[in-house]
Amino acid sequence: MEDKDVAHHHPNYIKIWAILFVLLLLGMGAGMVGNPTLATILVFSVAFIKAGIVVSNYMHLKFEPKFLKIFAAVGALCILILLIGLIPDIVYVYGD
Amino acid sequence: MNTQTENMGIPNGKFGTWVFLGGELLIFGGLIVSYILFRLHHPDWHEHAAHTISYIGLFNTLVLLTSSLTMVLAFKSVDEKDYIKASNQMFMTIGLGLLFLCVKAYEYNHEFHMGFTPVTNLFWSFYFLMTGLHAFHILAGLVVIFAFALRVRKGKSLASVEYVGLYWHLVDIIWIFLFPLVYIAS
Questions:
Q1: By the CB < 8 Å criterion, does A34 face chain B?
Q2: Closest residue to B69, CB basis, from A5, A13, A76
Q3: What is the model's pTM?
Q4: Distance between CA atoms of residues A84 and A78, nearest Å
């Protein structure tokens, strides 16, 4: 094993927590919007923004090499493929 | 301080952790995607979801977000070579994780008393499976953080703080999606 110092970037984590807290309250507020479709879109948009902030800053993905960003993006893409792949089974078979 | 060899521009331990997290993402992703598709086909599920307690979910979300903060601050403290502070911040993370589990246990107890169990209907099956599996991941994370917090206090296993932190943040992200799915979207 090789010992060496690696410099890490450390953004203002407390400020990021405060932003996440505000987004959490916004997400709750969005859930109370009268239009259910609009409420769903807003709630999940806030959730995606929060997840993006955590991945970028707390998991430091924005400071990582490009290949790791691509690796993470492929993981997210797999979820999308899974969603599309499950539509026929769930909606057209078990859904009825 | 990092003590891992590198073959891909980042420490092997970090890359291994990301690969592990990719697997975790697919486990929860499969469950969440199935839940979303079932729910779109069963609009009546919002009536079941209305029985979940939103303010408890909100509180637990705040607890997990804060635990992510203490965990990442521990990583920063390791970089600053303040290992006692890092260890203490990891113990704070453990405390917050335990608080999350206690609140979840209270919530489960309330739901069981209301007559909602994993076999009540498909909504509650999904609810208990997703939140239960998440709680199990929290518990596993707490055990690992505890083990490493003791070593970090002695200046050992320093790179592990970042790796276990990555896992902990993923658990936080999963909850970020579970919260609106089972609580707010009612």
A1: no
A2: A13
A3: 0.91
A4: 10
